[in-house]
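subagent[fold] <- orchestrator: predict structure for attached chain, return tokens only, no commentary.
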Amino acid sequence: DPELCDIVKQTVRNSAKGMFLLAQLHLESLANKQTPNDVRQAVRTLPTSLPKKYDELMDRIGSQNEDDAQLGKKVLSWISHAKRPLTVPEMQHAVKIESTTTRIEKFDLISQDILVSVCAGIATVDKESNIIRLVHYSAQEYFQNTGSQKFFQDSQQELANACLTYPLFDNFANGHCRSVEAFRSLRQENVLLDYADCHWVDHLREITEPIMEVALTFLQDTARTTLSYQVMKNSYQYGGLAPYSPRLVTGPHLCAYFGLHSLASKMLEMHQAGIDAEDSDGHKPIVFAVVRRHEDVIKLLLGKGASENSPIVDPGLLSYAASYGHLAVAKLLIEEGADLGGVPIGTPLTIAAEM
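subagent[fold] -> orchestrator:
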């Protein structure tokens, strides 16, 4: 219908006001209409701004069948709230995580085409990096502002829950990997493991009411916390298998490392012995807290009795805290009775002691 084509061209041009992306989104939406009359009706109400267009597209996502609507919102939630861009394989795993999931197999994975199509044009895949992303930076702005409150109020909790559930999969029950081959194979077969182990704590920090149950389930499983620490240290510091990673790292160690005061407190209420747990190098949780400068966790551990038989009496640990500018931590340790020994006057340690 030449007349209808002219109407579409003119209306899209006028409503887009020179914004190529808006015109493109309009045309993609109109292309999905089933009849000429559907097209005529749609062109009468074309949005004149990107936020309004995104509102329309989100309504379109919501009008799909229930499974597709949920999947579309889940994909967009991960894209807009993940701490780094996800590849298609990572997204395929991410959207399949439920609270009862214990493994993800090949035939569980949703195809790339479906992941994109259920997002109604808001998501696309970068051909070079294979990253699934939003179609334009304006979409990220939309979700960070109005869209996030409207559609993704629980996203951080859902992502935190997913990132804590993934390391609990059956595949990771054996814990620490002792060879490069085993470690590489585990990560290749479980593509979301790096993201989950590196970022569960980031999502957890953004929740006003932490999801204690799944977090404690994870933190009480020493095999999984050990593997999580190995993956996290490898991802942050090394290109392959970490040259060295402790073969034993407990939940209290991770709480101390990340400064998770409420979870550390809860764990110590449940298992007081955890305060003196040692990793495979003989380090107790308080050492992790000191090195990472988490004063509130240090105070918690000291208040629970960590000062007894603790490495805090070691001047070497005090020297580390002070020489790297952790004077508040050094002062805190000194106040708890750490021995300065023969440290000369005027050093960072004695300065901290006099503060």
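orchestrator: received. Logging for downstream: The beta strands are 86-87, 123-125, 131-134. The two ends are 83 Å apart (CA to CA).
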